[in-house]
Amino acid sequence: MNEDVLFNPGDAIANAHDFAAARVSAEIYKQRNALQSPLIIVEDPAKKDSFAVYFEKDKQVDPKDTATIVKYHVRERLEQ
User: What range does the domain containing 20 cover?
Assistant: First the structure.
């Protein structure tokens, strides 16, 4: 999968410096909470070893305030 998405970093459910840790955080969140939408694990291409977990519904298609938006590379989607 080679896809980039835009998110506000403040909307992250979890952050990690290791993909496996981000995946574990996403799985724990998924088990403990009824999901509002699928989860996406993304990688910040500007920072080495920086991963975050977001709700897919929070991605920005047409950001109004570009100062708070970061472009991420999608590493994995976790369906409900």
Answer: 4-78
Cα 33 to Cα 21: distance, rounded to the nearest angstrom: 18
- The total of structural domains in the chain comes to 1
Per residue of the chain (80 residues), give pLDDT as tens.
578 899 999 999 999 999 999 999 999 999 898 888 999 999 998 888 999 999 999 998 877 777 788 999 999 999 87
What contacts 31, CB < 8 A, 6 or more positions away? none
72 forms beta bridges with 5
Dihedral angle over CA of 38, 18, 24, 68, nearest 10:
-40
